[in-house]
Write a structure and sequence with these properties.
The chain is mainly α. The chain is 74% helix and 0% strand. The chain is elongated.
Length: 156
């Protein structure tokens, strides 16, 4: 059966890839003046923000019940980073959508959009790092399959 932990682990990689690829496309658009890279960055941002919302919700359910113990502090750090990253994704997507659809292309909006996207990419990297630490250093979400010593296999 798929739990919230499994679902979070399956979903989280998509917004990470989409948002990072969108940011790199935005940087490429600075140097190569082709609309393709600018448009790609915009659509990757929108898809990544939607995916980040789904990943955040599944992560919230996956982390339920961990209020004490050795996972408490690392889980809180990851959750705080995820909350900041989600808000950055929403704010950046809304800002870029308004600029994109209103066609309000000013120098300051371009640079503010890049700064927001860079902060978002940093947030994604930090949140992903803390999530990786939860799994690989603290064993969060890892189910150990131990042998069943109660059933020795001797059937009389």
């Amino acid at each position: 059966m798929i739990s919230a932990t499994h679902l979070h682990a399956m979903l989280i990689h998509f917004p990470i890839a989409l948002l990072m690829a969108g940011f790199f496309s935005e940087v490429i658009a600075l140097f190569i003046k082709k609309e393709f890279f600018k448009d790609a960055a915009f659509y990757l941002l929108i898809l990544g923000a939607l995916g980040a919302t789904a990943a955040y919700l599944t992560g919230s359910y996956a982390g339920e019940g961990i209020e004490d113990g050795p996972l408490k502090n690392p889980m809180e750090l990851h959750e705080q980073a995820a909350t900041i990253t989600l808000w950055l994704a929403i704010i950046t997507a809304l800002f870029r959508s308004a600029i994109y659809y209103l066609k309000y292309n000013r120098s300051w909006t371009k640079w503010l959009g890049i700064i927001l996207f860079a902060a978002l990419a940093g947030g994604v990297a930090r949140t992903g790092y803390l999530g990786g630490q939860l799994v690989y250093s603290h064993g969060a979400g890892v189910e150990l399959m131990l042998p069943d010593f109660n059933n020795s296999g001797d059937e009389d």
